[in-house]
Amino acid sequence: MRLARIAHPGGVAFASVEGDGDDAQVLEIAEHPFGQPNFTGKRWPLADVRLLAPILPSKVIAVGRNYAKHAAEFGNEVPSAPMLFLKPSTTVIGPNAAIRRPSGVGRVDFEGELAIVIGQPVKNVPAARAASVILGYTVANDVSARDLQKSDGQWGRAKGFDTFCPLGPWIETSLDASDLALRSEVDGELKQDGRTSDLVHKIPELVEFVSGVMTLLPGDVILTGTPEGVGPIEGGQSVSITIDGIGTLTNPVESV
Hints:
Blueprint: E1 2-8, E2 11-18, E3 25-29, E4 39-45, E5 50-51, E6 60-64, H1 68-73, E7 83-87, E8 92-93, E9 99-101, E10 108-110, E11 112-118, E12 134-141, E13 144-145, H2 146-152, H3 156-159, E14 165-172, E15 181-186, E16 189-195, H4 203-213, E17 221-223, E18 231-232, E19 238-243, E20 247-255
Parallel strand pairs: 6-17, 8-14, 9-20
Antiparallel strand pairs: 1-2, 1-5, 1-14, 2-3, 3-4, 6-7, 10-13, 10-18, 11-12, 11-17, 12-14, 15-16, 15-19, 19-20
């Protein structure tokens, strides 16, 4: 199932996306998408609604340097254990919403990533049981103010600006995410071309590690890391990140 969050003529709702192209429809889900969804019977053409961020997490937990070649492109070693940092919930935006590039921050980079969406409250989940607590997967862009990341020494400010975590276009709930192609483009030019099979710390390990540190709530998001090829974005450009089996997340960039 492709779970989306939409703005429709009557308000905002979760929905299931069915079909493709001009025939795609969205079926409204009552209340929330966790567990067995209950449908209201309302439906609209996908073209008649606006896709929002597919989930509003209580927290976004990101994993740094989880692709060896990405670590190497910045002259860093791969950490022996997952390197965690947090992005505020206010960083989250949806498809086609603008990444607001703050003035005076120097270089701002895109980072295309596979995102895990948690489906239930969990703590201390063993890797062997990780799949049972995952609602699904979506596409993410871990936008980063690179100069601040370097000067501050910790990453909270560099990764924490409003709009610095686009998510979407929806959550795919039926997917083997162990070996998916991930591609990032800026204004149509290919910048990243990786595979999730190159993750240093794999998805089950990440769920075990993160849930050993903190309780994960329904809708919480784990960003799994980015392949090599990250680079700067400027106002007026557009970033598109595609993960096979999920879809494409596109966001314009605005300078503010």
